[in-house]
Every structure is written in C-alpha cells, then in structure tokens.
Amino acid sequence: MNASFDVAHIWAQSDAVAHATALVLLAMSIASWTIIIGKTAGLLRLRRSMLGAVDSFWRAESREEALAAISAHDRSKVFTSVAADAFEAAQAYEGRRTGGIGAGVDASEFLGRTLQQSTVAAQARVEQGLTMLASVGATAPFVGLFGTVWGIYHALVGLSGQSAVVLDQVAGPVGEALIMTAAGLFVAIPAVLAYNAFSRANRLVLARLDGFANGLHAYLVAGVRLSQRVDDGGTPPRPQQAS
User: Fold this and answer.
1) Distances in Å between the alpha carbon of 94 and those of 11, 115, 131, 200?
2) Which residues pair with 224 in a beta bridge?
3) Range of 62's domain?
C-alpha cells in the first residue's frame, strides 16, 4: 500500500468541497480556542480579584470610597458596574422622589429593578462566548462527517469505470476521507469541555454577583451594611446596621 497520508497529499487529492469543509473546521477551531484562552484568562483575573473587591467595598466608609475601592480591585468591572448603577439609581431616587410622576414609587422596587437590569447586563458579559463554544461543540462533528461522506463519494467516483479495483485503490482515499471525521471531533471535544467548565465557573461568579446585588439592595434601602466578605464556601456575611 503506497498511499501517503501527509497533509499536502490529502489536500492535493481533495476537491473544492473538501477544501471548504476543512477550512470551516479550521475557522471553528481557531474561534473556539481564541474564546477558550480569552475566557480562561478573564475568569482567572476575576476570581483572583472578586473576593478582595467585594471585601474592600464593604469596608469603605462612604459610597464614593466604596466605589473607588471596588473599581481599583475589580479589573473585570463586573461587580463595579453593578455597584455604580446601584449608587446612580439611589442618587437619582433621592433627588427626584419629591416630585414628578414617580414621586410615589417605592425605593425598594426602584432599586430592585435597577439592580436586576444591571445584574442581567453583567451576566451577559460574563457568559460572552459560550454560545459560540456550544455551537462549535454541537456542529463540528457533523461538519467533519460531511467531509468524510463527501470524501468517500469523491473517491468512489474517481474509481468508477475501472474494470478491476483492488483494496489499495480504495483504502487510501477512504482513509483520507475518514480523517475529516477525526478533525471534526478534534475541534468539537475541546469546545464541549470548555463550555462545561466555563458554565460551572460562571455559575459561581454569578451566585456571588447575585449575593452582592442583594447586599447592595439592603444597604441602600434599609441601611444594612455588610461588614465581612463572602467566604469561599458561599456563606453570606453577617449584616450590621450602618452607623
């Protein structure tokens, strides 16, 4: 059997459809690995700074100092954006509650809606890229399978018309076509594993973000201030009345 399975030989023996399929798989792989590397670095930065940022926020003596402290520690700006939106909403409510059509709006409801919208926006930033990973993980095996089917069809068409076909003439082209299936799995498996890992990590971050938003709501509405940071096990801090 003299068939060569190097990349140059396979590329030379393939047609335009197989070339396009291989390029699609390559683009999907590049996109998924770009997201994997970027999100890994981002999540590492976020997890390193998350507890310190929340802790410094609650230790500050005023709103201005709290916002400056969390902004200095939170390089991802996920928690900072929620705190900034909450303080802006509280200031707007305090300045406009005496007049206008919104004079009778409850402070808890107003701030709760603001925090909900801000948290949803922060969640969208945290989960950015997961849709692409899910799409790559779900479709790459089928793209590779299509390349295999097309490669086998192309090989059989090339052998048509011959009076005698030996195994060597079939095994080479079919083996080359099957490489497309392996390529599809090579692209899909890292994307699926990364999607699952990032989903779990994001759940932990979003749980802490939700707890931080609830703490902000209690502080701005009832004057209840959290004096201790959230520990690694997710135990909420003990509230104290703001002095």
Assistant:
1) 69, 16, 40, 39
2) 241
3) 7-78+127-204+220-241
210: in domain: no
Look at residue 228 and give its three-state secondary structure: coil
Residue 81's φ and ψ, nearest 5 degrees, are -65, -40
If one counts the domains in the chain, the total is: 1
For residue 184, is it within any domain?
Answer: yes
Distance, in Å, from the CA atom of 149 to the CA atom of 113, rounded to the nearest integer, reads 53
Question: Which amino acid makes up residue 182?
Answer: A
Q: Which is nearest to 184 in space by CA: 143, 134, 132?
A: 143
Residue 112 covered by a domain = no
pTM comes to 0.75
pLDDT tens across 1-60, in order? Answer: 444 556 666 666 667 888 888 899 999 999 999 999 999 998 888 888 888 888 888 888
The number of CA neighbours under 13 Å toward the Cβ of 213 is: 25
- For residue 209, the Cα-to-chain-centroid distance in whole angstroms is 16
